[in-house]
Amino acid sequence: MLTVHHLNDSRAQKTIWLLEELGLPYDLVPYQRHQVSMMAPPALKALHPVGKSPMIEDEGRIVIESGAITEHIIERHGDGRLAPVPGTDAHERYRQWLYYAVSSGMNPIMIKVYARAFGLDGSPIDEAANVELAKALTYIDDALADGTFLLGEDFFAADIQMSFIPEIAQTLMPIDAYSHIVTWLDRLHGRPAFRRSIERGGDYRLAGKAGLREPVA
Fold first, then answer.
1. What phi, psi does 69 have (nearest 5°)?
2. What's the predicted TM-score (pTM) here?
């Protein structure tokens, strides 16, 4: 059985959500951030030098990094679900979204988070991050303009992975202008498996009022 080392208000919630979508059994080991520093507890570093969540154990192997965890779960336990057929153009676009979620799409958000932490709101680096974040959100919004999900009408694990970007972005700036993202995020948060992931993993403040929404198919 898979074990998820789950840190509150982190990407680990996406791992739980993915497992709920797939209907896979798993054990959950919860950890709480330090209330002041918001850092992960030392217990995670005792498991792996990086000391960050998400982190899973599968048959004695520890896997870190949300993108790698997603690929690992889909390849080993997905049985062809929640990912396009390997080798297709759709699969290449799917894989790009998995990595965009932790690289180009996330970089301006992290710059803004650090700027806020060090009292640099409105500084040149913060303003530069605003420009890059707007570009990232526009890119995502445009991708959603002609379909229900990122790759069209089919829901994939890339949608789960990518949802973290607007969830954090809306804590830093208004995102109402990105109407396709807002609709997509609301649709994702209404999925029964997402609601189960909140019930299993506990409060997830980045989802806002998602826990109050009615589930959708």
1. -65, -45
2. 0.91
Q: What is the CA radius of gyration of the chain?
A: 17
Closest CA to 194 of 182, 207, 175: 207
- Would you state the structure tokens that stand for residue 17, as one six-digit string? 């959500």
Quick check: 180 and 159 in contact, CB under 8 A?
no
Residue the block writes with tokens 């990518």: 162
Q: What is the pLDDT of residues 128-149, one digit of tens each?
A: 999 999 999 999 999 999 999 9
Other CB atoms within a 10 A radius of the CB of residue 150 amount to 22
Query: Residue 187 in contact with residue 181, Cβ under 8 Å?
Result: no
- Enter the tokens of residue 98: 């998995």
Q: Cβ distance 137 to 166 under 8 Å?
A: yes
The span from the CA of 106 to the CA of 110, in Å, is: 6
As beta bridge partners, residue 163 has none
Nearest to 13 by CA among 215, 169, 160: 160
Tens of pLDDT, residues 163-210: 999 999 999 999 999 999 999 999 999 999 999 999 999 888 887 644
Residue-wise burial string across 97-107, b where 16 or more C-beta atoms lie within 10 A, e elsewhere: bbebbbeebbe
Report d(CA 97, CA 150) in Å as an integer: 8
